[in-house]
């Protein structure tokens, strides 16, 4: 009993209540997200027109479809969870079942929180995009996060469910639908971004030769700065993912002595001279 994993913030006898509260909280977050998207749609129609209105409507419609898919996913997940408890608890109470399977219960709570959080973040990103204060890339990242948290919820439910369960089959179908709707958000976001950028085409026809050369050099400097920044952000992303994996319990510690080392540079003496056609 002492060696069993315990949650850091709640007691085991409270796990059952926490599951129900988190599922209800996730449902409320999704309902609120749907309402906010409808308000944004109305606001966009009043404050924008032309290409921007078309782009905003397409993005918000895809976000609405995604929210509806998530809502159905959560409902189906709740039904499956009740089925799992009823078939597995025997003579024990629901609370005792959750306490006995505390590791699984904590995974279910974590997955539910991730889904609700992803939905909230998506709506906030969409709001900023419609108001032209946010970035299209935020919507794309949020869509990927929702797809990942959906997979986490399905995996947590699948562990205890019977393979022949109809609710499990429905949940897997809902998961595929969420992934499809998330992909639609990404597609509508990218196409909308391209439309907006095409509208603001660059015109250099009125520039002098000296002005063009100056602009070219400044752009080259900016490209180098962005490439360096991109490399640094990729390293940071790798470290964040590694720490996330550690905190999620995937491993006890990150191996410090097994970090990727750059491959040694080849000795010039053994390289053959490339043909002229291959020279840069």
From TrEMBL:
Coiled coil ranges: 207-243
Main location: cytoplasm
Organism superkingdom: Eukaryota
Entries under Pfam families matching the protein: I_LWEQ
Phylogenetic lineage: Eukaryota, Metazoa, Chordata, Craniata, Vertebrata
Keyword list, A-Z: Coiled coil, Cytoplasm
PROSITE patterns: I_LWEQ
Residues covered by region (Disordered): 250-280
One Gene Ontology cellular component annotation held by this UniProt entry: clathrin-coated vesicle
GO MF terms, alphabetically ordered: actin filament binding; clathrin adaptor activity; clathrin light chain binding; phosphatidylinositol-3,4-bisphosphate binding; phosphatidylinositol-3,5-bisphosphate binding
Domain I/LWEQ: 7-248
UniProt xrefs under SUPFAM superfamilies: I/LWEQ domain
Stored SMART domains: ILWEQ
Organism from which the protein derives: Edolisoma coerulescens
One GO BP annotation of this record: endocytosis
Location(s), subcellular: Cytoplasm
Protein name as catalogued: HIP1R protein
